[in-house]
Amino acid sequence: MFYRKPLEERIAERVAKRPPLKEGKHFEHRPALIVFCVIIAIALVKVAGAFVLMYYDVF
Question: Where are the transmembrane segments (predicted)?
């Protein structure tokens, strides 16, 4: 009565409808690029902070 396709099949159908990714493009949509940049920025701030702490001999 309330039959729905499994989640995997619904996702596969949705992915099949999308156009192919353009050549040279790494991210499918803008939010993925923003999340990636935020993660890289956080990692860089952590490394820079560790160097600052080592410079001032806090460790």
Answer: 32-56
